[in-house]
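Reviewers of the previous submission asked for a worked example of the structure-prediction workflow described in the proposal, so we include one complete record here. The input consisted solely of the amino acid sequence. No template or homolog information was supplied to the procedure at any stage.
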Amino acid sequence: MSHKTKIFAAATAVFMLAVPALCGCSSSPSPDIAPHLITTPDASPVRPIYSAESENMSAFDGELTETQYRARIGELYSIVVDDRKQPVFYGESDPVKPVYDAAIDILNRYILNAWRDTDACELNIAHTLHDYLATEVKYDFDLYERYVRGENIADDPAFGIDGVFLNKVAVCDGLSRAFAFLCAIEDVDCVRVTGTFDGVSHAWNKVKLNDDWYNVDVTGDTANYSVNGGTYRSQLSHGFFLISDNTLRTFRPRPHEPIVIDYPAVHDYDYYSGKTLLVGDAQYPHVITDQNMLNALFSDISKQKGKVGKIELRLKFPNKTNVNYGDMYEAEIAEAYGKLKNPDFVLNSTQKPYFQYPNGVYLFLMYQ
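From that input alone, the workflow returned the following structure tokens.
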């Protein structure tokens, strides 16, 4: 598969998620009450890969061409992800050393030693890396535009880990490679998966937690949208975080189809259970089980002085079945949006200011 095919596929997939030209009237920032696990710095990080066998990067002479540099990025990736070894660079001036150093800096900033030797260690690492990549790395829509214009984009860093770690700009290829790269350094089992998303080529990951494999799609969990036809904005969700092969493939609004199903993912991890939202003095679960609760939540949100910009919820009404086969909560969501006062994002017959994910998970946009 060519790089051109990959970028077209990735961009198309993200555009499928984008809500076009939403109406917005306010530009002030708002608090975010969605769950996060972005941590505080650790004083003395310990990386499991440092105890692993080291492997020398290849020698070179003179400046690298772009093709040689890209091959060297691939060599670095292979040593860390495929061989699970620590790279030994060809001197301090090795041109790919900054890529590795930037990855280590991310881990030093966000991964806590306190998680070591706990049952939740691998989950906390996967969660934090997912959230970091989805919030800190921009999707490269400009690259898609260059593709449309017929430009040569084959060697663009957005396809690789350097685009993520050095530029913080990537497409699905780069994001999935970066997630696997960071997991490998943290000694968390992770693989890349290639296939299609809503019928076009795509790349995501599988991660192993407590002997079970799960799908993770960082690109799919970065909800991109434009306001009044302006530049794209993004919001974090967890709708494609730790779900099974069956759920991923049978989610009919936007199914994933892997080329090969390796490392079978049998279970969905219920990310939202046990999490709560505090809206003013009211506390709500992230799993909403009836219309009255959903209406009350939206009503309380509209009363806040610091307007809530977005929330992510799992709707789990007892009378709803087959929620992965269409927008099964469309009427219920419309009723809840009616409880908002002067929202910036308006729901009508042509605009739906929310993103639907598997298992009744939704990301709702309300105020800017």
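The two ends are 39 Å apart (CA to CA). We consider this example representative of the routine output the project will generate in years two and three.
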